TrEMBL record:
<keyword id="KW-0378">Hydrolase</keyword>
<dbReference type="GO" id="GO:0016787">
    <property type="term" value="F:hydrolase activity"/>
</dbReference>
<dbReference type="Pfam" id="PF00561">
    <property type="entry name" value="Abhydrolase_1"/>
</dbReference>
<dbReference type="InterPro" id="IPR029058">
    <property type="entry name" value="AB_hydrolase_fold"/>
</dbReference>
<dbReference type="InterPro" id="IPR000073">
    <property type="entry name" value="AB_hydrolase_1"/>
</dbReference>
<protein>
    <submittedName>
        <fullName>Alpha/beta hydrolase</fullName>
    </submittedName>
</protein>
<feature type="domain" description="AB hydrolase-1">
    <location>
        <begin position="64"/>
        <end position="295"/>
    </location>
</feature>
Length: 309
């Protein structure tokens, strides 16, 4: 027993030492704003947060497009798509609560009802009566749940590699696997190595070589923004409780866009959405991973424009 106790004690001591070596402090948002906000950035006080967003394009457009990013991402995921869309549409991108410069929700409520309430409040503050919602990954799941919450306000919807159905053997990313592993995931509150961020991004893209040092730096910085790691941990521990059966109740005209090499949410999900959302349409991009709006932004912008016009 003493030998086992010594081994266990040594293992715990090793973990403590490793944590002391690699642990990172949270970064105040004041440090990050000069790095990741630009001339189009605005900060809206809403629901106890200062929400980072950009409102670009055709100001007179009465049916604007609101873009929602995925897990551990930011509005920057849409940058290249916005460049193509803003000549034709009013385009609004934002950092969702719990992520990037917006940071954690004071309510610490990361679930579909909370995000539906948030979208309603956000649109109301911008005096938008009806809009088109586009979402990638987790943002896609938030979108179709909003379509159930307030269908009269939603004119159309675009789901891009959207979450919603149970996974069926996808390989996933290393970071997401660690963040979903009990006990180990608690360590990510203190240590978020850039090497892990890079490895996770490389599994998100079809071509790992397309991941840049600049992207790794940005994803790492916004991940350790004050409060964001706690928010991510709550989400990975299962704060979102979706009901795939309810997707059949969606009546909003829907376009489904997908990368055929998505390792996180497989392309087989396209058939599920097409079957459950009556009248929906789909486009599949060849040799593209989980984030088509970053990998083939021109094609995604063209698909969206064709659908919304």
């Amino acid at each position: 027993m003493k030998t086992i106790a010594k081994i266990l004690g040594g293992f715990i001591a090793l973990i403590v030492i490793l944590l002391l070596i690699i642990c990172e402090r949270d970064r105040p948002v004041e440090e990050l704003i000069p790095l990741y906000a630009n001339k189009d950035s605005k900060f809206m006080p809403i629901m106890g947060m200062k929400v980072h967003y950009r409102d670009e394009g055709v100001a007179t457009d009465t049916l604007p497009l609101i873009l929602l990013h995925g897990m551990s991402s930011s509005l920057n995921t849409w940058d290249s798509v916005v460049i193509s869309l803003k000549a034709h549409k009013r385009v609004i991108s934002l950092d969702l609560p719990g992520f990037a410069l917006t940071g954690p929700s004071p309510e610490m409520a990361y679930n579909f009802p909370y995000y539906s309430k948030f979208i309603d409040s956000f649109a109301t503050r911008l005096k938008i009566k009806r809009f088109i919602l586009a979402g990638n990954s987790l943002g896609g799941a938030i979108s179709w749940n909003y379509a159930l919450h307030n269908p009269s306000r939603l004119a159309k919807m675009i789901l891009i590699d959207a979450a919603g159905y149970p996974k069926k053997g996808e390989s996933g990313s290393l970071g997401f696997k660690l963040a979903s592993t009990p006990v180990i995931n608690n360590l990510l509150l203190y240590a978020t190595p850039k090497a892990l961020v890079r490895k996770s991004l490389e599994t998100v893209y079809y071509d790992p070589a397309s991941v840049t040092d600049e992207q790794v730096e940005r994803f790492h910085d916004v991940a350790i923004r004050e409060g964001n790691r706690e928010a991510a941990l709550m989400i990975f521990k299962g704060s979102f409780k979706g009901n795939p059966e309810s997707i059949k109740e969606v009546k909003t005209p829907t376009l489904i866009l997908w990368g055929d090499k998505d390792n996180l949410i497989g392309v087989n999900n396209v058939d599920n959405f097409l079957k459950d959302i009556k009248g929906s349409k789909a486009e599949i991009y060849k040799n593209v991973g989980h984030v088509p709006m970053e990998e083939v932004p021109g094609k995604v912008a063209a698909s969206i424009l064709k659908f919304v016009q």
